[in-house]
Write a structure and sequence with these properties.
Elements lengths: L9 H11 L6 H8 L22 E4 L2 H9 L22 E8 L2 E6 L6 E5 L7 H14 L7 E6 L2 E7 L3 E3 L5 E3 L2 E3 H4 L6 H4 L11 H11 L3 H17 L11 E3 L7 E2 L17 E6 L2 E3 L5 H9 L5 H22 L5 H14 L3
Antiparallel strand pairs: 1-3, 2-3, 2-4, 4-6, 5-6, 7-8, 9-10, 10-11, 12-13
């Protein structure tokens, strides 16, 4: 939510502030202007006067308009227009979309909930969004995410379109918001601390033990939630993702008093890019190197939560087997992600 901690990065906040004629540190002004469609179920509007603008809706894109929108993301982050009242965290070039059906897309106006997020490929690391799409397909196949993914080329660049996991169709067909928060928000950690590295454990960011404590205390079925945390941790290791930090792990709030681990999102196999991270964002039993994580490591880490080590090993072995089968079944034999996952899953399973 703009310049509030844990939300839009400084460069994006500047673009938002300039468009609204506000200072970048005017948190309440930015929230007033861009608070109607943000992450989770929060809607921010004036309680006395209500929305300052029109009725929530969607403006359809033509294919040419969508191409121009993607091409202009540097000047208009998130596809921002005068009638936009939205925000989203993240450093990647992104565009918020509404699925209008039949392959048509629109942009949300006046706070209508967006349904999808479009991510533009990293020009310095071509293939990043395709690799993320492959990992999300695997995660969905093994039951660790509900996110639908599609890749398409727009404005000469590869784009990934993902469904939002914090949206759900209501009984009357309308779109409802699901409340969610990432671990930095849940634990009141400022991701901009320590040179904007505060989302990483080494710099004061959340730990797996703290995530487990939240799930153990507030989960409707704590044992099931800890199993899911074990499975997600194992999957992160198998796909070689060293960027699973406090902003990339989230919680859903199915009721006012319970939480559950959110579906996986922003799941990138960073090991495929040597200049990206190869040291874990959250350590496992004191280990930081992705290549040193074994079933024993994960069992030892979970035992500190506490979670039964034997149960942990069963869950970890099961998710590794399923990830291996999914990679073999779903991914192109020439895919770098397939090769990475198959090699890492086989190595992991040899130690179960």
């Amino acid at each position: 939510m703009c310049s509030a901690p844990g939300c839009c990065p400084t460069d994006t906040t500047g673009a938002f502030a300039d468009r609204a004629g506000l200072a970048t540190n005017d948190v309440f002004g930015l929230l007033r202007r861009y608070g109607r469609d943000v992450a989770g179920a929060v809607v921010i509007a004036d309680p006395d006067t209500g929305p300052a603008s029109g009725v929530p809706g969607a403006v359809p894109y033509t294919s040419e308009e969508l191409e121009r929108e993607v091409d202009g993301l540097d000047e208009h982050p998130l596809g921002l227009h005068d009638d936009s009242e939205l925000s989203l965290a993240g450093l990647q070039d992104k565009l918020l979309l509404i699925d209008l059906g039949d392959g048509r897309w629109g942009r949300p106006v006046h706070g209508r909930p967006s349904t999808h997020i479009l991510k533009v490929d990293d020009r310095r690391r071509p293939g990043l969004v395709a690799a993320e799409a492959a990992c999300l397909r695997l995660a969905r196949h093994v039951g660790l995410t509900t996110v639908d993914v599609a890749c398409t080329e727009l404005a000469g660049v590869e784009c990934l379109i993902v469904s939002r996991f914090d949206r759900v169709a209501d009984t009357d067909g309308s779109l409802a918001r699901l409340h969610q928060e990432d671990l930095c928000q849940a634990l009141a950690r400022d991701p901009d601390a320590n040179g904007r590295r505060g989302k990483y454990e080494r710099y004061g960011g959340p730990t797996l033990a703290e995530a487990a404590a939240l799930l153990d205390r507030y989960g409707a079925d704590p044992a099931r939630e800890l199993d899911r945390l074990v499975a997600a941790t194992t999957f992160t290791v198998i796909v070689g993702n060293a960027d699973s930090h406090g902003k990339n792990v989230g919680l859903l709030h199915p009721t006012a008093t319970t939480v559950e681990l959110a579906p996986l999102y922003d799941t990138v196999p960073t090991l495929l890019w040597p200049k990206l991270r190869d040291s874990l964002a959250m350590s496992i039993a004191g280990q930081w190197s992705l290549d040193e994580i074994s079933p024993d490591t994960i069992a030892a880490g979970a035992a500190r939560w506490p979670h039964d080590p034997q149960r942990t090993r069963r869950v970890a072995g099961d998710i590794a087997e399923r990830a291996l089968a999914a990679a073999t079944e779903l991914l192109d034999p020439e895919s770098a992600v397939r090769s990475l996952v198959v090699e890492r899953a086989q190595r992991f399973l040899a130690e179960v």
